[in-house]
């Protein structure tokens, strides 16, 4: 990446509040000019690192959010230029993940499968969506460099499903106004808990800020408050188990020799048509039928029939991550089951650590700090919270899936795309499909709902092949979600 011009900005400063925490100036920005090659095209852009206040209901400043905003600089008229507002999840996670590994103009140094390599650092992201859309990466309160500034502030106004949506909606409205982007086609993208966030946000922005969006991208979505308790919750993991077992080569030869996307439709059909109806019967399911199902589940999951029967067909994910490769002395990752780990002992029902997450933390923090200092010329002694203190988090009243459905119904322009990794055990791909199916029980909105699968995990973009494919899917989604000039928003 070539840095062309750096504009110094003296508004960045340090101060110490009464709580003795170190803070940035709560309303400031610094701009620098850059160039990146995307899909063979040179793209000039400006990068703005900034802070913008959060105000309470009385208009008093209570916090500030840190953001990084990328704008293509050779586009004078922003009227038709899409704006993407990007959030990660946690809750309590900063926006670093998609920022420097997915859609932004830089890419952290990792190998083709997403494993960390040294020296730590970054490179141009030739797959970035900056060629087709401007992007702002937002760190919610107490993540990244964002902080509470009022030591007396009620933390409950930030840390909960609905509180999070409420203050962020006001913040996004202010940002769009300050950047003069009301006329632009607008998109939200969220990953993991960020999908809960953006599903609620699109509805809140539409109904309280009168800001309408063209699209929402849900990357590795949560359950979005959509009920799936009982047999459905237990059975829905089987397709993920099958994908993981296939990856590690532990299926029988008849299945192992098939391609992954040949196997999964078969497992999904078994799950929906046979396993869920049988598990509904609970303890009144005949022993013969239970054994028959356990045998089939063993064939698909790589687990023994015995341990499946010991769990009454409902094998917990934690046990699966420990059990699948137990005979090899290895565990598999939660967030990406391609990763293998080593525990203190092979015994037990749960692994010691998630080998996927430890690998990712290894790569991201050094690269991001290096990037901020050397490319964006942002220097501070403040710690960038990859995972910040946001607990207790109020999870009550989560109706974000229904909020998203209502927003779709009310806005004929709005489209939704879901992106899932087949090897993600934290927010598995089949439950993402299930959410999409249940979100629109009438079936009247399904032409604006789509799902895409990738051969990687929770952060599917860490695998270079999927980085390209997933970004291309976003490009196509943006293109298709913008109506032709003069097309009215009506049914």
From TrEMBL:
Signal peptide span: 1-20
Assigned keywords, A-Z: Carboxypeptidase, Glycoprotein, Hydrolase, Protease, Signal
One MF annotation (Gene Ontology) recorded for this entry: carboxypeptidase activity
Keyword presence, Hydrolase: yes
InterPro entries listed in its UniProt record: AB_hydrolase_fold, Peptidase_S10
Pfam families (alphabetical): Peptidase_S10
Protein's name according to its UniProt entry: Carboxypeptidase
UniProt source species: Echinicola rosea
Lineage: Bacteria, Pseudomonadati, Bacteroidota, Cytophagia, Cytophagales
């Amino acid at each position: 990446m070539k840095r062309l011009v750096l504009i110094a900005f003296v508004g960045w400063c340090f101060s110490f509040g009464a709580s003795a925490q170190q803070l940035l100036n709560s309303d400031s920005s610094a701009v620098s000019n850059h160039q990146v090659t995307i899909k063979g095209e040179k793209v000039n852009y400006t990068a703005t690192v900034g802070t913008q206040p959060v105000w309470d209901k009385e208009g008093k400043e209570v916090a500030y959010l840190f953001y990084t905003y990328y704008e293509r600089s050779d586009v004078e008229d922003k009227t038709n230029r899409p704006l993407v507002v990007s959030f990660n999840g946690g809750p309590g996670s900063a926006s670093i993940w998609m920022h420097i590994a997915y859609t932004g103009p830089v890419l952290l140094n990792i190998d083709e499968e997403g494993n960390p390599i040294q020296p730590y650092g970054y490179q141009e992201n030739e797959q970035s969506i900056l060629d087709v859309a401007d992007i702002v990466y937002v760190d919610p309160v107490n993540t990244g460099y964002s902080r509470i500034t009022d030591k007396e502030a009620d933390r409950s106004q930030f840390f909960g499903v609905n509180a999070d949506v409420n203050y962020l909606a006001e913040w996004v409205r202010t940002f769009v106004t300050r950047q003069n982007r009301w006329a632009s086609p607008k998109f939200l993208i969220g990953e993991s808990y960020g999908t809960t966030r953006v599903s609620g946000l699109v509805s809140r922005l539409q109904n309280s800020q009168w800001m309408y969006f063209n699209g929402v991208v849900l990357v590795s979505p949560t359950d979005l408050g959509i009920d799936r308790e009982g047999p459905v919750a237990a059975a829905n993991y089987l397709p993920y188990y099958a994908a993981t077992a296939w990856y590690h080569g532990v299926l029988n030869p008849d299945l192992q020799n098939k391609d992954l996307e040949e196997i999964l439709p078969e497992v999904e059909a078994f799950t929906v048509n046979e396993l869920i109806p049988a598990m509904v019967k609970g303890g009144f399911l005949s022993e013969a039928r239970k054994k028959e199902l356990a045998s089939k589940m063993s064939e698909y999951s790589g687990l023994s029939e015995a341990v499946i029967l010991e769990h009454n067909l409902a094998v917990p994910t934690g046990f699966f991550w420990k059990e699948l490769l137990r005979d090899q002395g290895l565990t598999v990752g939660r967030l990406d089951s391609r990763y293998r780990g080593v525990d203190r002992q092979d015994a037990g029902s749960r692994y010691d650590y998630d080998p996927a997450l430890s690998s990712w933390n290894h790569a991201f923090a050094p690269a991001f700090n290096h990037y901020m200092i050397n490319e964006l010329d942002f220097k501070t002694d403040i710690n960038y919270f990859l995972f910040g203190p946001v607990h207790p988090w109020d999870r009550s009243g989560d109706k974000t899936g229904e909020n998203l459905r209502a927003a779709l119904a009310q806005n004929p322009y709005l489209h939704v795309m879901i992106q899932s990794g087949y090897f993600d055990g934290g927010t598995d791909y089949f439950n993402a499909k299930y959410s999409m199916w249940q979100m629109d029980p009438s079936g009247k909105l399904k032409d604006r709902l789509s799902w895409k699968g990738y051969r990687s995990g929770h952060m599917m973009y860490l695998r270079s092949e999927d980085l390209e494919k997933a970004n291309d899917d976003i490009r196509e989604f943006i293109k298709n979600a913008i109506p032709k000039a003069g097309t009215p928003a009506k049914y």
